[in-house]
Amino acid sequence: MTFTPDIEASLKVIVNLLNTEVQIVDMLSSVADLDEFLDSQHFTADRAHNQAELRSIRQLRSQLKSIWTASEEDAVFRVNQILRTANAQPQLIKSPKRGYKLHATTTSSPLYDRFAVNAAMALAEVILAGGLERLRICASTDCKNALLDLSRNRSKLYCDAGNCANREHVRAYRARKASVGK
Ligand SMILES: [Zn+2]
User: Fold this and answer.
1) What's the pTM?
2) Separation of CA 176 and ligand 1 centre (Å)
């Protein structure tokens, strides 16, 4: 399954947003945290830089997290709900370098609307491609990170953060050794 680079980038931003919460500390607890997160994702938008805006993005994080493990029917309902509440209004906008693109918010829309619509449009593409099972939670026993499996054979089990794949391989290796020793 391949998505356009734009969609793929949007999906990765969602994963990164979801994974701000599963660390030992919530990495989205202050306005400064939000600034840092948006910078790290190269997400540019008009900003209010206040608590209400922070709350709105934390709320979006919960909304998106529920989609990550939702059934298709539920995911469709939630994606549509976000598109409605965030005032998505698709329109073709020409960029000097890349020609026309479909945008559903404008640069002056509030941060929540831009972020939410961007995420919901990307998730809509995943649903249209029948790819919801590619949205998963890391299989490592001590990790709850969200992951996005873009591999050809849908084989990705572990998140990219931390060292989950390695840790699980070591665990499996030790278990094998222990059973051989018995
Ligand atoms: Zn993990």
Assistant:
1) 0.88
2) 22
CA–CA dist 72, 37 (Å, integer): 29
What gap in Å lies between CA 78 and CA 132, rounded to an integer? 13
User: Which span out of 1-5, 45-49, 70-74, 89-93 was modeled with the highest average pLDDT?
Assistant: 70-74
C-alpha of residue 163 to centroid of ligand 1, in Å: 7
Question: If DSSP codes are grouped into helix, strand and coil, which group holds residue 123?
Answer: helix
Say how many Å lie between the CA of residue 55 and the centre of ligand 1: 26
pLDDT tens for residues 131-161? Answer: 999 999 999 988 889 999 999 888 999 998 7
Q: What DSSP designation does 102 have? A: E
- What are the beta bridge partners of residue 148? 135
Structure tokens given for 3? 């998505």
Residue with token string 């980038």: 9
Taking only the tens place, the pLDDT of each residue in 109-130 is: 999 999 999 999 999 999 999 9
Token pair of 61 as six digits: 């994080």
How many angstroms does the Cα of residue 148 sit away from the middle of ligand 1? 11
| Angle formed by the axes of helices 5-18 and 31-40, nearest 10° | 150
- Provide the CATH topology of domain 5-181: Jann2411-like fold (1.10.3300)
